[in-house]
Amino acid sequence: MSENNCYHCGLEIDSRDKDQFHTVILGQQRDMCCPGCLAVANAIVQNGLEDYYQFRTEPAQKSDDGILSTLDKLKVYDEPSLQEEFVFDEGKHKQIQLTLEGITCAACGWLIEKQLSKVEGIRQVAVNVQERRALITWSPLDIKLSQILATLKRIGYVGSPFHPDEHEASFKREQKTFLKKLGLAGIMTMQVMMLMTGLYFDWFGAIELETRQYFYWVALTLTTPVVLYSGSTFYIGAAKALSAKTVNMDVPVTIAVFGTYLAGIRSTVLEQGDVYFESICMFIFLLLLSRFLEHRSRHRAAQISANMMQYVPVSATKLNTDGTISDCLAKQLEVDDVVLVKPGETIPIDGVVQEGNASVDESMLTGEFNPVAKHAKSVVYGGTVCQDGALTITVTQTLKHALVNQIVRLQASAMATKPKAAQVADNFSRYFVIAVLLIAGFTYGYWRLQGSEEAFWITIAVLVATCPCALGLATPSALTCAMAKLNRQGILLKRADALEQITSINTIALDKTGTLTQGKFSLIEKWFEPSVEPDSVMSIAIALEARSEHPIARAFTDDQAQKANHQVTHYTVTPGGGISGEINGSLFKMGSAAFCEIEANTATINANVFLAVNGKLLAAFEVSDSLREDTKETLNRLAKDYELAVLSGDTQQNVDKITNSLPIETAKGGLTPDLKYAEVQALQNAGRKVMMMGDGINDAPVLASADVAIAVGNATDVAKTAADVILLGDQLLAVPALIDTAHQVKRKIRQNIGWSIGYNVLILPFAVSGVLSPWMAVVGMSLSSIIVVTNSTRLLSK
Question: Are 102 and 156 in contact (CB under 8 A)?
Fold first, then answer.
């Protein structure tokens, strides 16, 4: 084989990839044409099948399924080049979102979490049953991704890296299987019920015993495929649980089905006793129907949360350095690439507008349908739509780290921490299944001692009627629907238990700048030291502020005639204080009077931003901001139920000026990040439950310490990291909506759990006493699950 050809597949190697992909095979270094061939070759070598290359008669095909079928296919996922698209670095750990196949109920999620959490190296496992996804964080030093996937496979579930198209295909495959099983069960149930009902009610007249037995054999023949094929979903779930030395809701179902089926076979063969083939078929049909409706409901809620994926761009128009234009995949764009977006096109990537003016529809992020005007230096996000005008955009984030993908990841991460209600429900349902099995055993023993011929059928009714499927769905179904609703409103949850904590909040603390106000500052007045040149000092101020991401910086850098023509070195930011940097060897400080180490009263104006060099005051500025349009309405609504406090780093005079007309009980200014943190700690020590709202770097410590933290509007990345909830839009009215939804979820969870427990407690005496026949138990159990799921989905329409 030529040295210019791939050793694995034989195709010619691109000269650019000549030294990029290679590995040692049969004692020599071999060149490969692509990461795929390299991954497969490494898998062959690592699995001890290196002799394949000695005895093969022709090169392999790319992505050769014949070879992969003889290997542990999962090894390929350990290749760093293949992980680049779907694995995220979380410091020392790595994180992946998986699509799971084989999940049938909430107990499956519990089983996966418990089994994987025992594996050394796995730091966190969060399974979202509703969306059939798992978020897994692991230490790459202790375990490989392929080992995680292999562990999943050993307990009966197939995991693959989440991709929207594949995930949707997985859902459709499961739905197709559901429909086949449901259709078969439905058709056979009608046939068997017509046959058996005719016998029970003597619709066929006086028929001979031989004919009756013939009908029993026909019913058995029709029931068998329903039991063995349609009901296999439940048996597989039970087997998974028992293999993991635990029990789930499918265990009593499996016992009931096979118990009734085997009893029917015995009665048919021996020609004595009762048969309940119609009850078996109806049981499996109605249980499958409830599972199918649950499956559809989960998908409906998941679609709303996953709708962000439809906005993930596919292609882009790239402006090359030589001035030419070319089409490329959006995921191939790198930082600092330049792309052209024409009217009506989807913006392919996060970036900054280099030139052009346009109205952009950002409703997919914020839920607000008013177009946003974009111009030079404006930030734009991938997936938003350029409605008019053309934009030239400089890429600032690769597609993997774009805001759309970050939102999808945060939505998955939100399920990582389960609320207490979910944990209680999970534990209770597991112990309840054990209790059901014990009660069924005692029931059978009691009625046998009483000499009842119905002991077996009474036990079957107990097993069926008390299956806690509805309890397992109570909390996760409500949470998923709530998160989908909030996502649609431009509210992003980073952890699901934040909803539970919001309902206990009694104090709301707010930052002023960028939270209560628009964060769009303007220079009201300037003061300069008489001995300095104003234009020269102003250019220094602009040079310093040009590096800052604080909203105040825009008052100096937007629409200024002077340019930042000074080179700044040793630039530093002091949260809550200001900024500093060296220009021509002199250290300049710009910020509060205390930070600049000067006396505030040396200025002749009501300044709140100062510029000093080596402790000497050069200039002072009065910078002003205005309230958001919906600030008063929002605070008036919140003030009815909560104590409101403003904690700001601005001067007390400016804070008072803003808050005088607002329903604020406490307004404190001049606070550094440490003092803000101390204020919140004091409130918490006094027994208050505090929600903190902020947007800046200086708010990060206090956001992290609050019971619930909300990053408002165009918050900095640091603030978003510390927050529990992120408002993607600029509307403060989203906060009352968030609080209302949190209380709705709490009510729904209570209703669901109350109904689930109440139904089981109510039905149990009837089942144990023999009043409830098996078919009645089937109908009751199925309706219970359907009611819970339907009740949860009502959140989506409110």
Answer: yes
